[in-house]
Amino acid sequence: MSRIVAARVLVLDDDDAQNRKLAATLAAAQCDVSTFTVVEEALAFSRRAAVHVALVDAQFPDQEPIALLTKLRDAGRSMRLVAMAAFPDVALTTALLRGGASDLLEKPIQPARLISAIEKQMAELGLEHRNEEQLLAFLGRRLRTLRAADGRTQSEVAEAAGISPAQLSQIESGKSATGLWTLARLSAELGCPLRDLFHG
Hints:
By secondary structure, the protein is an alpha/beta fold. 52% of the residues lie in helices and 14% in strands.
């Protein structure tokens, strides 16, 4: 089994029971989770650790929601912020989204909705392919789509790129890892810059 690129998630909620529940759900989805009930501790952690996503209680006692989001954003510049709130009204929802939250989860948070939100934020960070199998399958689909759009057979592209048709077939099916130089040759042959092969 390939190593998972774990989503590093910070949870900030004054309710420790809520933190434990969210942490259990996230850990089961192979996330690396750190929970906090004290704002200053969460901020200190954000400054020293590379956190991908912060789940933030937008109704944290004695904290103005937008100011809290701003503090967290300043502490971890590339960190995605997802607000959590019980019965959020339109005004609060609008303020949170305008204030820097990428998403809003309504409490009580359903596990499927939580995991979906984390996956969405990871994709926004460019980390949607979290293991080798996912990345190989994605690259294979990209190459197959580019080749089909070019109206060429596997044999034609493989010969031009200096590999066997069987090797290209394995790459396109996501069953075989290949070297960066082979990917570069295939990308060039299909008129796609190598950097663009990893997107789309």
